[in-house]
Amino acid sequence: MSDTNAQSTAFVREAMLPAKPAPVTQVGAVRWLRENLFAGPVNSALTLIGMFLVYTLVTHFYPWFRHSVWNANSMAECRAAVTASFGDGATGACWAMIRERWHQFIFGFYPPELYWRPIAVFVLLFVALAPILFTQLPRVMLGFSVIYPLVAIWLLWGGSIWPVTMVAVGFGLGWLAMRRLSAYSSILAIVAAVLVPVLFWLFAVGPLDDLLTSVLPIGIEPVASDRFGGFLLAITIGVGGIVMSLPLGIILALGRQSDMFLIKTFSVVFIEFIRGVPLITLLFVASLLLNYFLPPGTNFDIILRVMILVTMFAAAYIAEVIRGGLAALPRGQYEAADALGLDYWKAQRLIILPQALKISIPGIVSTFIGMFKDTTLVTFVGLFDPLKGIPDFIRADFNWKGIYWEPFIFVGAIFFILNFSMSRYSMYLERKLKRDHR
Amino acid sequence: MKKSVFLGTLGVACLSAGIAAASTLDEVKARGELNCGVNTGLVGFAAPDANGNWSGFDVAICKAVAAAVLGDASKVKYVPTTGQTRFTALASGEIDMLARNSTWTFSRDTDLKLDFVGVNYYDGQGFMVRKELGVTSAKELDGASVCIQTGTTTELNLADFFKANNMSYQPITIDSNAEGEQQYLAGACDAYTTDASGLAATRAAFADPENHIILPEIISKEPLGPAVRHGDNQWGDIVRWTLNALIAAEEYGVTSANVDELAKGTENPEINRLLGVEGDLGAMTGLDKDWALRAIKAGGNYGEIFAATIGESTPIGLARGLNAQWTQGGLLYTPPFR
Predict the structure, then answer these.
(1) What's domain A105-110+223-432's superfamily in CATH?
(2) What tens digit of pLDDT does each residue of B227-239 get?
(3) Count of CB contacts below 8 A, A vs B?
């Protein structure tokens, strides 16, 4: 038996075979291509169409970019330079216009010798934002964030330092009044916090300002609002709108949830009215209609008017986004807050809002991004926005008449950088605040 | 009930505010600055340079008025206005006068409650086509696609013209001049139509102006002029006669170069009255007697302004044509200074 068996097993493998390489269709680039681009007849067809489109676009636009001209004084010189280098009929981008006029895209008509002021404001903006955006930083830096808006206003518009100081003093008095009265009644404290600064600004500021200006005339050269333009204008309106619309939006969202009839009605009417009206209409109201109602001769700064209307517009959207966050919170959270004996404001501040806001981050940030892009609409009320206002008047200079795509590409690139940064930050924030037990 | 009382009070408050308003002249003097509505940017007519200093044919009118009223041609705040905002800006008092190549029409003068004080440029609507199209007259444009800016009188003129000649056309609406040029060059439309002055400037800026022609037909009257609000005739007079002073100065040969010399007194009583040597015309409209002298010194007479901003020596290269003095076969004719 054993012999026959021994003879029948002529060969027994004693070692494992080395692993064969996977079939060529299952590895590396080929596999990736098969899985992602050619995973069936439909996908293959779509891929080919897509590649054809990309190819057409690139071959169409690449020469235009390759023939870019950076040094010229007019459109005609640009064309001559392209013809000289690349032959008749060649077209090329004329970036020389950006090179000559970039400062107007950034600063508008801001006096060139004062460019350091907007630049300082821009740099300080990040110093002020840093402690708000990144909690790792020391909390004392928040002190600067609080006074930053006033510093920015003073640096941008210039003039005497006292009006801005008066605004700060007003807020300080309001805060003091609130602190003093909060021991007695929270409602009284809130009323005082609003009433005291308003009364101060209405009655005490005028004489005090005159007195201080005559004693200590500290000030820098004033710059009027009509000198603002380009990204300086867009960022001023955008950041101002963002900073003011978030608190206003939170208050409106809470107001809409409130049980108090008047507050609820006001919030609903405000939100629905503003959301139901196009932004352009509001801008026209800001620039034109307000003049009919104000007494003749009043000079209500146009940028401030636009900023207020943009803020109201963004606040209405933010309010709805936050209401979504509030609605997403389980009922138990509200009840738990009540069970702990927290009053309304404490419950909102410590339990409800932190969670609701976290849920709303993507919505809030996309509202901000949308609002920032919408600042270009101010062109319709005669302000020089970077996308249309500035290029239009540059084209009105005969040297640059006929230039079309270059300003759009330049401005679009800057907007992309700014908005993409905002979007990345919101994703960072979402990851950091993630408390789900997934 | 309460609501109507509230609205009534508001209305009364608005009315009284309107009545209590000081005259525009007093307001401008008190402010020390003339708010002048201009185009957001139109080659030759109004454009800020790299440093933000405005210049152009319309801007020169603002400067002349500021010089006449305030004594300083630089005391102007230029308020850029768009086609949509220009008349409302004037009506609401945001600007004191509008010098924004606006066509003087019946409805604008009456229904919109503007007062056009005169004409500083006689324009008309024309067509530009590519030469290779082989069209030599606007009457041959039947069935053509035409690029046309929305919200302007040109849009209405175009419809009228094609209707009157029993032709059809396909409008390609555009939002701005820059977009129109782009569409036209890209071949989106066969013809581009706008004011002839604008066409000339556009064609001059093309890479290949020789391949485009401006058709001879002018299909509309476009008298462009500065406008003020209804109801303040004194202010209207000031703007009107400042414009007239510039035109008259050209007629009498008063230029920015010789105006100081002539202001010492001349043989011509008309010049003497214009420059305040004889009589006191300025006082009749609330100004001093040197008002016209200052207005002429600001940028020269009408002819000098024309030559410096849009004339044949500039790249825009517009001929005087209808805008020549009446003595030269044009339409400029100012009433006498008497």
Answers:
(1) MetI-like (1.10.3720.10)
(2) 999 989 999 999 9
(3) 113
